[in-house]
Amino acid sequence: MYELRHLATLAAVADEGSFGRAARRLGYTQSSVSQQIAVLEKLAGGALFDRPGGPKPVRITPLGTVVLHHGRDLLRRADAMRDGIERFQAGDSRIDIGTFQTISNTVLPRIIGELRDAHPGCDIRLFEEETDSPDLTGLDLMFFDARPADGIDGVKLLDDPYLLVTRPDDFPAGPVPLEELDELPLVAHPAICHQAVVEDFLRARGIRPQFVFRTEGNEALLAMVRAGLGAALMPRLAVLRHDESLALHELTPGLPPREIFLLWQAGRTHSPLAAHAIDLAVKAAAEVS
């Protein structure tokens, strides 16, 4: 079996033209260099160097040239592997993150900024999708607004309470009784993810708003509220930015808050980059909360 240290010795002898100089370069004794070349010659089935003796330099043989060519290639690959491992351990690897629009607009920019500052060579790839159930295929981490199911682990980041978003004069300032939502025109997200939980909660209490418009886009919902099409029930993170054209009301009693988790496949070993991203997500969520 060819060993990398033997191939490194072969390259050193070829470069230096002398067993003695190769030994000094590598920090070996000359007899150790001779023994390693002898091992290679036995494996290769022939002489790798012509040894004229005296002060004359050794000369690589045709067989030695073949072994050296492939040996240098193996040494380059080994160096590249060591470099790749070192970069991976330093966090300069790739991470694939699933997200959704509220997190993309609030928590995620903080995480990405700090990851890039700490690991300038990292490759961060984001995938945004609104789904009823988390699909972590091909993902290292995924933000999701429901508790992890079987086969999925995760950490809870925060509770995101719901607010009633209206035009400034539609309701008096302050909390709005939940029953005021009955037959109220509402613009809303599609009835998937936590929106379905909210609507089930209202129906169970005999409260039936009139849903007049649905879209996945937060900004489109807010635009419809401004236009007077209806009010909206939206998570607080979706309306963090101050806007004098809108009024935000708490509800009494409140709706069940949206729970936001960071998920990953159960039993998965995290890369240093993914582990750092998890720590930053917990920190960023605490700051946003």
Account of the 3D structure:
41% of the residues lie in helices and 22% in strands. It has helices at 4-16, 19-26, 30-44, 62-89, 101-105, 108-118, 193-204, 218-226, 272-288, and strands spanning 49-50, 59-60, 94-99, 123-128, 141-144, 152-160, 162-166, 176-177, 185-188, 210-214, 231-235, 247-249, 251-252, 258-265. A 5-stranded mixed β-sheet has the order 4-3-5-14-6. It has a 5-stranded mixed β-sheet with strand order 10-9-11-7-12, covered by helices on one side. Strands 1-2 form a two-stranded antiparallel ribbon. Strand 1 and strand 2 form a beta hairpin. Helix 1 packs across helix 3 (30-44), helix 1 (4-16) packs across helix 4 (62-89) and helix 2 (19-26) crosses helix 3 (30-44).
Radius of gyration: 32 Å
Helix content: 40-55%
Strand content: 15-25%
Derived from helix and strand composition plus strand pairing, the structural class reads alpha/beta
Following the backbone from N to C, one meets helices and strands in this order, namely HHHEEHEHHEEEEEEHEHEEEEH
Overall average pLDDT: 91
Q: Span between N and C termini?
A: 59 Å
Give the neighbour order of strands across the main sheet. Answer: 4-3-5-14-6
Q: How many distinct beta strands?
A: 14
> Which stretches of 5+ consecutive residues score pLDDT under 50?
none
Provide a brief overview of the structure.
With 289 residues, the chain is of the alpha/beta class. It is 41% helix and 22% strand.
Question: Secondary structure elements and their pairing?
Answer:
Blueprint: H1 4-16, H2 19-26, H3 30-44, E1 49-50, E2 59-60, H4 62-89, E3 94-99, H5 101-105, H6 108-118, E4 123-128, E5 141-144, E6 152-160, E7 162-166, E8 176-177, E9 185-188, H7 193-204, E10 210-214, H8 218-226, E11 231-235, E12 247-249, E13 251-252, E14 258-265, H9 272-288
Parallel strand pairs: 3-4, 3-5, 8-13, 9-10, 9-11
Antiparallel strand pairs: 1-2, 5-14, 6-14, 7-11, 7-12
